[in-house]
Design goal:
The structure holds two protein chains of two kinds. By secondary structure, chain A is of the alpha/beta class. Chain A contains twelve helices and 25 strands. Classes of the chains: A alpha/beta, B mainly alpha.
C-alpha cells in the first residue's frame, strides 16, 4: 500500500508539491480544495475580469493532466484535522485518512474590524469566489457608480486597474503618504503615484478608512475617511490591505499556530507528518533575512519544490536563494532582484536613476564603502534573472554590474536601451568613469 | 471618440454593403461581335457551342447570376452532347472519330474562366461606367470607415501598453454572432473567388483603371484579390501600430510584412507583367509557392530569357539556401512573420483573433500530422510533376501528374490556404493555415527545431503562470507550460510574432538569437530556490 499524501489547497504551493512528488515517486496523492475543481493561476484572475482571458485560460494544466499523473482531486472543505487518528473531517460529514498531510491553504484578505466591513459590496480580491463576486458587484458603471479600494499594495492596484477597465470611477485609499513606500524607495513610489493619477484614479495618500456605511438592505452606500471625515459615496469597497494566513479551521487542532502555521525550515509543523507551505506557513524565524510569512507566488512554489524532495526521501530544507519578485503597476512593469529596501539599510546607500518620461527607473542598493551590489529594482526595463542571481552570488560591485548591464537587459528586440544613460548618471554620482561593455553571450552563459 | 468609432463603423459597413451589392448591379448583354471575337481569340472549335451561345445569350440581357448560369448551361449542354458522341463512336469502335470529338469539349475546370471572360466583355451598367465613383463608394468608404473606427483607439486605449481589455467581452473577438457573420462572409468570399469568379466581374470593373495603369491590362479576380489584400493589410497595420505603439518589435515587424506584401507580392509582379515579363513574387518560396515547378511555370520561365532563368535559379536558391540559412540565424520568424504574405494578413487582419488558436495537446498532435502530411503531399506532387516534365510521361509511381496537381490546387491551394485558412480566422484563430497546413512552415519548422540559434528565453523563475502568453499565442503553443518550468521555448511551429513577450506582465519572455548550446534547457527546480537543491535535482536528471 502506497503512502497517502494529502494536500489541502490547490494553489501554486500545493500543486507544485504534488507534481514534484509524482516526478520522484509513486505515492498516492490527493489534493483537497473547496475553491475550485482545478488548479488555476490566482495572479491571473484580474485578466478574466478585464476580458483579456477566460477563466479556462488561467488553468496551467489541461483537465486530463491530473488523472494522467494520478493526482486525485477532491472538492471539499476541510473542517477539522484530527492528527491523532490522521483523519480529516470534510464538509458533508465525509472523512479522509492520510499518512502525510500538507497544509497549503493560502490566505484571506485582511479585515481590521472596520464598521460595515461585512456589508454587501464589500469584498477582497483573492479567490475565484471573489472574482465572481466582483463581476456581480461591479459589472459596469451603472451598477457600480464608484468604487473605493482600501489598501495600497499589489492587490489594491490590480483591483483599481480592473475597475478602470469597466469605466468605473475609483477612489484609492492608501494609508502611507506615498504608494507602497513601505517596500519601494521614495523615488519609485513617487513615480507610481504620478502614474496612478495619470490613469484618472482618485488617489488619496496618507488616509485611513474610518467606516463603511450601508443602507437598510445591507448594501454599501459610502465610506468615511478617518483623517478628514469626508464621506465618499460608492457601491463597491475593495478591501486590499494585505492578507492573513487562512488558518482559522486549525485553531483547535493542536497544530502550532501563530499568525500562520508555525514551521521550521524543513516546513514541518509541531505535529509529526504534518507540513505547511506557501502563504499559510510561518517560519519561526525568517530565512536569509526574509519575513517569517512570505505570501508570494514564487516562494509558495519554492516551498513546494523543497517539501516534495523531503517527502520523497531527500530531506531538503526550504532554503531560498536570492530574493526576487515582480509585479505590474498598470502600464509599468516591475522586477526586483536581491534586496532593495525602502530606506537603505545601515551602511548601505541607493543609486537611483529615473528616465525623463517618468515611466522607467531603477534603484540599486549597495554597500556604501565597497559599493558591493546588493539588489536592484527595475521599472519598465526587464532584466535577466539568471545573470542578476549570479552577480549577487559572486558578490559583484555595482561598478561591475553597471559596466555589464547590457548583458542583463531582457527587453524585447529593437527596444531603446538605457544602459549608457544609467551609467552616465552613476559616473556623475560616484565620480567613476566606467564605460559600458557590449553585450556578450559568452559572459551571459559563463 | 466613441461616436467617431460608431460613425466609422457605419461608414465601413455602408462601404461593405455597396461592395457586396455591386455584384448584383448592372446588366450583361453579349453582342454577336463580342462573341465572335471571343471564339476567335480562344480558338473554340465547337460550332454547337457557338450556336447555342448565339441563340440563347446574344441579344439577351441578364443579371450577374443569370448570365453565369446561361453560359455555364451552354457549356454543360455542349459537353453532354460531345460525351454522347464519344460514347457512340466508342461503342462503334470508330476510334478516329471518337478521338476527334475531344477538341470540342471544354474542360470543366475552364468553365469559370470561360464565363468570366465573356462576362468581362458583356458587362454594362453603372459599375462599369463609373469605376472611380464606385471605388470611392466601396474601397473609399471602407478605408475611411475602418480608419475612423481605428484611430480613436489612440485615445480610447489610454497610455501605451498592452490593452487587451474586453477581448473576451466582445462578440466580434469572443466567437459571438459577429464573429460567425464575419466567418460566413469570408468563407463565401473565398468560395466565390476560387470557384465562381464569374460572379465578381463587377468588382473587377471597379479596379480596371488601376489595373490598366499598373500592368496595362484589365483587372482579373486575382488583381482584385491582390489589391484588396494590400488595402486590408495597410488599414489593419494602422491598427497594429496604434495597439502596439509601445512595442518597437511589433512596429518594425508590421512595417516589414507590409513592405514585402506591397512591393514584392503586388507591385513588382504587376510592373513585370506590364513589361511583358512573367509576374513573379520574389519572396514566395517553394513549397508554399506550390506551382513553382509546374510545367506551365517552367515553360514560361524558360521562354522568357535571362530574367526567366534568373527567377528559376533564384527560386531554387531561395528554398534550398536562403531560407534555411536565415532560419538558422533568426528562426523561422524572418519568413513567417516578417516577410510572408499569408503571415502578413494573419498579423494584421488576423490579429484580433489570435487568441482563438487551440492550445490543447490534441490540437498539437493534429497539427504535427497535418502539416507534415501536406509537406509530403507537396513534395510528392513536385516529384511527379518534374519527372513528367523531363520525361514527357503522364504519370510517375502510378500517379497522374494532372490529377495530383489539380487535387493539390483544389484541396490545399484553394480550400486549406484560402477558404479555411483565412475564412476561419474569427473562430479558429489567424494562423490556421500557417499552423496546420503550410508546407513551407513545416520545412522551416524542422530547421528551427533542430538547427537554429532562435529561442524564446524564459527569464529564470519569474513566471506566475498567468497564461497571457498561451492565450495570445496565435500558433497554439502552450507557452506557459515552458515558462513556468523555466524552460526556453524551442518549438518548430513558433513564428516569432513576439506577442507572448509583449503580453507577459512580468517580463518573462524574450525572443533571442543566441548560441545553440544551452538553447534547450529543461529544468526541474526553478531559479530562486536553494542552489544545491537545483544541482542535486538537475544532476539527478542528467544521470538518469
Amino acid at each position: 500500500m502506497q503512502e497517502h499524501i494529502v494536500i489541502i489547497g490547490n494553489g501554486i504551493s500545493g500543486v507544485t508539491t504534488a507534481r514534484h512528488i509524482r516526478k520522484a515517486s509513486d505515492k498516492k496523492i490527493t489534493i483537497i480544495s473547496s475553491e475550485t475543481d482545478y488548479f488555476f493561476s490566482r495572479t491571473a484572475l484580474m485578466y478574466v475580469y478585464m476580458g483579456h482571458m477566460k477563466y479556462e485560460h488561467t488553468k496551467p494544466y489541461e483537465d486530463y493532466f491530473w488523472k494522467k499523473n494520478r493526482i486525485d482531486l477532491k472538492r471539499a472543505f476541510v473542517k477539522n484535522v484530527d492528527h491523532q487518528n490522521k483523519q480529516l473531517h470534510l464538509s458533508g460529514g465525509e472523512q479522509m485518512s492520510y499518512d502525510k498531510l500538507v497544509l497549503a491553504v493560502g490566505s484571506k484578505p485582511n479585515k481590521f474590524g472596520w464598521p460595515g466591513e461585512n456589508l454587501n459590496g464589500v469584498q477582497g480580491l483573492y479567490s475565484k469566489q471573489d472574482l465572481d463576486l466582483l463581476e456581480k458587484n461591479a459589472p459596469n458603471n451603472e451598477t457600480c457608480k464608484r468604487a473605493v479600494v482600501v489598501g495600497g499594495g499589489l492587490i489594491g492596484i490590480e483591483m483599481v486597474e480592473m475597475l478602470l477597465t469597466r469605466d468605473i470611477p475609483v477612489t484609492f485609499l492608501v494609508r502611507e503618504h506615498s504608494f507602497w513606500n513601505s517596500v519601494l524607495p521614495e523615488g519609485e513610489s513617487a513615480m507610481l503615484n504620478r502614474h496612478i493619477k495619470s490613469h484618472h484614479v482618485d488617489l488619496r495618500l496618507g488616509v485611513n478608512l474610518e467606516s463603511i456605511q450601508g443602507d437598510a438592505q445591507g448594501n454599501v452606500t459610502s465610506i468615511i475617511i478617518k483623517e478628514t471625515g469626508e464621506e465618499i459615496a460608492c457601491d463597491v469597497v475593495g478591501l486590499t490591505a494585505g492578507v492573513t494566513p487562512n488558518v482559522d479551521f486549525l485553531k483547535n487542532s493542536g497544530i502550532g499556530i501563530g499568525r500562520g502555521v508555525k514551521v521550521n525550515p524543513m516546513l514541518e509543523t509541531n505535529i509529526k507528518d504534518i507540513y505547511a507551505i506557501g502563504d499559510c506557513a510561518e517560519q519561526h524565524e525568517g530565512i536569509n533575512g526574509r519575513r517569517p510569512i512570505e505570501a508570494v507566488w514564487y516562494t509558495g512554489r519554492m516551498m513546494g519544490e523543497a517539501l516534495a524532495q523531503t517527502l520523497t526521501g531527500n530531506p531538503t530544507p526550504y532554503n531560498p536563494g536570492h530574493w526576487f519578485n515582480s509585479a505590474k503597476f498598470m502600464d509599468i512593469e516591475y522586477q526586483t532582484y536581491g534586496w532593495v529596501f525602502a530606506k537603505p539599510k545601515a551602511g548601505n546607500t541607493h543609486f537611483h536613476w529615473i528616465h525623463k518620461d517618468d515611466d522607467k527607473c531603477i534603484t540599486i542598493e549597495m554597500e556604501e564603502t565597497s559599493r558591493t551590489f546588493l539588489g536592484i529594482n527595475n521599472f519598465d526595463i526587464r532584466l535577466r534573472h539568471e545573470l542578476l542571481d549570479k552577480w549577487l552570488t559572486e558578490g559583484r560591485s555595482t561598478d561591475y554590474v553597471l559596466e555589464h548591464l547590457k548583458d542583463a537587459n531582457f527587453d524585447p528586440e529593437f527596444y531603446k536601451h538605457y544602459e549608457s544613460e544609467i551609467l552616465e548618471a552613476y559616473n556623475k554620482a560616484y565620480g567613476t568613469s566606467i564605460v559600458p561593455k557590449k553585450k556578450s553571450w559568452k559572459r551571459i552563459f559563463a | 471618440m466613441k461616436t467617431i468609432k460608431i460613425i466609422g463603423l457605419i461608414i465601413f459597413l455602408t462601404g461593405m454593403a455597396i461592395w457586396t451589392g455591386a455584384l448584383f448591379m448592372g446588366e450583361f448583354s453579349l453582342t454577336q461581335e463580342q462573341l465572335d471575337s471571343f471564339i476567335e481569340e480562344k480558338g473554340i472549335k465547337s460550332e454547337l457551342l457557338a450556336k447555342t451561345l448565339e441563340e440563347e445569350v446574344v441579344g439577351e440581357t441578364f443579371g450577374t447570376f443569370g448570365f453565369s448560369s446561361a453560359i455555364r448551361g451552354a457549356l454543360t449542354d455542349n459537353n453532354v452532347y460531345y460525351d454522347e458522341q464519344i460514347a457512340k463512336y466508342d461503342a462503334a469502335k470508330e476510334w478516329d472519330k471518337k478521338g476527334a470529338q475531344y477538341q470540342y469539349r471544354i474542360n470543366n475546370g475552364d468553365f469559370q474562366a470561360f464565363t468570366f471572360n465573356l462576362a468581362k466583355k458583356a458587362g454594362t451598367g453603372f459599375v462599369r461606367e463609373n469605376p472611380g465613383l464606385m471605388w470611392i463608394l466601396t474601397f473609399g468608404l471602407g478605408i475611411l470607415g475602418a480608419l475612423m473606427f481605428i484611430f480613436p483607439n489612440l485615445v480610447l486605449l489610454g497610455q501605451p501598453g498592452i490593452k487587451n481589455d474586453h477581448i473576451y467581452h466582445n462578440s466580434a473577438t469572443n466567437r459571438g454572432w459577429i464573429a460567425w457573420l464575419v466567418l460566413i462572409y469570408l468563407v463565401a468570399f473565398y468560395l466565390v473567388l476560387y470557384f465562381y469568379s464569374d460572379y465578381v466581374v463587377n468588382w473587377t470593373f471597379i479596379l480596371d483603371p488601376i489595373s490598366r495603369a499598373l500592368n496595362g491590362g484589365d483587372a482579373s479576380q486575382w488583381f482584385v484579390y491582390g489589391f484588396m489584400y494590400c488595402v486590408i493589410m495597410i488599414t489593419m497595420a494602422v491598427r497594429m501600430y496604434i495597439k502596439y505603439r509601445h512595442n518597437k518589435y511589433q512596429i518594425v515587424r508590421t512595417t516589414s510584412v507590409l513592405f514585402f506584401q506591397i512591393v514584392f507580392a503586388f507591385l513588382i509582379p504587376e510592373i513585370m507583367s506590364s513589361l511583358g515579363k512573367p509576374g513573379y513574387d520574389f519572396k514566395n518560396a517553394f513549397p508554399l509557392d506550390y506551382d513553382f515547378f509546374f510545367e506551365w511555370n517552367l515553360n514560361t520561365l524558360t521562354a522568357s530569357g535571362g530574367l526567366g532563368i534568373f527567377i528559376l535559379v533564384w527560386g531554387i536558391v531561395l528554398t534550398l539556401v536562403i531560407v534555411p540559412v536565415m532560419v538558422y540565424f533568426f528562426g523561422k520568424r524572418w519568413y513567417c512573420s516578417w516577410v510572408c504574405g499569408c503571415g502578413g494578413l494573419a498579423e494584421t487582419l488576423g490579429d484580433p483573433y489570435r487568441q482563438h488558436s487551440n492550445k490543447t495537446m490534441k490540437a498539437w498532435k493534429l497539427e504535427r500530422w497535418l502539416i507534415h502530411s501536406v509537406l509530403v503531399f507537396s513534395l510528392v506532387m513536385t516529384l511527379v510533376t518534374l519527372y513528367c516534365y523531363f520525361t514527357g510521361a503522364q504519370a510517375f509511381l502510378g500517379i497522374n501528374t494532372n490529377w495530383i496537381k489539380d487535387t493539390y490546387s483544389f484541396l490545399i491551394g484553394a480550400w486549406f490556404a484560402g477558404v479555411i485558412g483565412t475564412g476561419f480566422y474569427p473562430i479558429f484563430g489567424n494562423r490556421v493555415w500557417c499552423r496546420f497546413g503550410c508546407p513551407l512552415a513545416a520545412y522551416l519548422g524542422f530547421v528551427q527545431r533542430f538547427k537554429s540559434r532562435f529561442r524564446i528565453t524564459t527569464n529564470g523563475g519569474q513566471c506566475i503562470s498567468c497564461g497571457n502568453c498561451s492565450t495570445y499565442c496565435e500558433q497554439g503553443i502552450d507557452v506557459r507550460a515552458y515558462a513556468q518550468k523555466g524552460e526556453n521555448i524551442v518549438r518548430s511551429s513558433c513564428v516569432g510574432c513576439g506577442i507572448c513577450s509583449a503580453v507577459c506582465p512580468r517580463g518573462v519572455l524574450k525572443l533571442e538569437n543566441g548560441p545553440e548550446k544551452g538553447r534547450i534547457n529543461p529544468t526541474q527546480v526553478l531559479l530562486g530556490n536553494d542552489v544545491d537543491l537545483m544541482d542535486y535535482v538537475n544532476n539527478e536528471q542528467h544521470s538518469a
